[in-house]
Amino acid sequence: MLYIAHTAGVPVEERQDFWRDVVSSAFVPLEAVLPQGRFDGKLRSTSLGPIDVIDVATTAHQARRTSRLVSAAPSDSLKLGLFVKGGGRLEQAGRQAVVQTGEMAVYDTDRPYWLDFDAPTRMVVLLFPRAMLGLPHDRVDEVTGRAIPGSGGVGALVAPFLLRLAAQLDDVEVRDGARLAGNVVDLVATMLADRLDLPPADPDAARRATLLRITSYMEAHLGDPGLDPARIAAAHHISTRYLHKLFSAESTTVAAWIRSRRLEHCVRDLRDPLQAGRPVSAIGAQWGFPDASHFSRLFKAAYGLSPRDYRAAVGEDGVADLARSDRRGRQQG
User: Alpha-carbon Rg of the chain, whole angstroms?
Assistant: First the structure.
């Protein structure tokens, strides 16, 4: 479930306590040190199985994880933060790093640290159990408190994926969360292993990281009717045969994955009351179905109703009719 918190409407004199409670709930217990002037902050977060994804934007302030807080609430977790806007100074384990826009940093929640944001900043943060990395603890400690470029190597895959993930926090379905969480941490582990010159902890991690990179690309281009295996393979410098092999290992096909995700987006838009006046054909075209008749046939095969009838069911009887049509669609699939 998506959690949202905003300082708007909170009296200025109450914002330090409010924001401390917000970040302590979303991350781990922290102290928030706000400036004397006005402070603004907005946070969105959701859970994907065992990991949390947090998108947070603030004006200047400090966040501190003190020894007292570590002792009172250990978590055995790591945080990976991508600086989307602005930057900050991170100190942990005797190291200080200036992390700038487009860069990332890893920090250990079971060691004291502080972050100093001296300007408006936006970060996308992953909070996940340390054990999920599958890398030696002492070696992971070598990369905490250091800036990691998001423009080269595996970092160039991680940074844009985190941005897309943050943009779709309210679209990620719970049933997909656990698998997605594993793939996300695999990608992070591959990035850290590369920086430490270590082999991947899991021999299959590189394959899953490649698949995650490919599906992120596909997700970003779902609206393009020309999205096909040849284009996807070329964009990732692999053969179409290897591309099909990757999806076969997931018990699906490239075409089925694209069709399913396109239809899921169409369903979301058809249910959206703010798009009630938008033509059904326009929704289909937006998500890669330019032929209205073809879109209608595919939709009915998946959900048991035409797109037009599906939308009508939302308006007339709501959840009950939709539940029946969803069940029928799953049975037919």
Answer: 22
